[in-house]
Amino acid sequence: MLMRTDPFREMDRIVQQLAGTSGTWSKPSVMPMDAYRDGDAYVIAFDLPGVNTEAIDIDVERNMLTVKAERRPAAKNDTVQMELSERPLGVFSRQVMLADTLDTEHIEADYDAGVLTLRIPIAERAKPRKISIRADAGPKQISA
């Protein structure tokens, strides 16, 4: 139901992680995700620890789902001296091409414990359905 994203973005994510660079609005970092089917819905879970819900943007245009988020540095004052900073900051983004069989009009989004979870229902037209067979009205007469 989901189409894989560009493999080169995954390479960029690995390089950014190794280089220790953070994402920007023009070149965001990729956020990790899981996608699976749960009954009559597809579920996509994005890891966004430390991101406020106000800093998350979810957009669907046609069948392209885009999730962008920004993790900002913690507010600092003059008495704070940073000793270690390993958590990545900056902009994170992920685009997922959704299949036509998903109902993008009824996506539900929840954010709990740093995980953004989207539930996308399967469209009614894509669900399996039983086709009834009409019975014949009887044998057909052939006239000579």
From TrEMBL:
InterPro entries recorded for this chain?
A: A-crystallin/Hsp20_dom (IPR002068), HSP20-like_chaperone (IPR008978), Small_HSP (IPR031107)
Q: Which SUPFAM superfamilies match?
A: HSP20-like chaperones (SSF49764)
Q: Which PROSITE patterns match?
A: SHSP
List the Pfam families: HSP20
Which keywords fit this entry according to its UniProt record?
Answer: Plasmid
Coiled-coil features, chain-numbered ranges: none
Domain SHSP residues, every copy:
24-136
Does the keyword Signal feature in the UniProt annotation? no
* Family from the record: Belongs to the small heat shock protein (HSP20) family.
List the PANTHER family hit by this protein, alphabetically.
HEAT-SHOCK PROTEIN 20 FAMILY MEMBER
Instruction: Name the chain's protein.
Output: Hsp20/alpha crystallin family protein
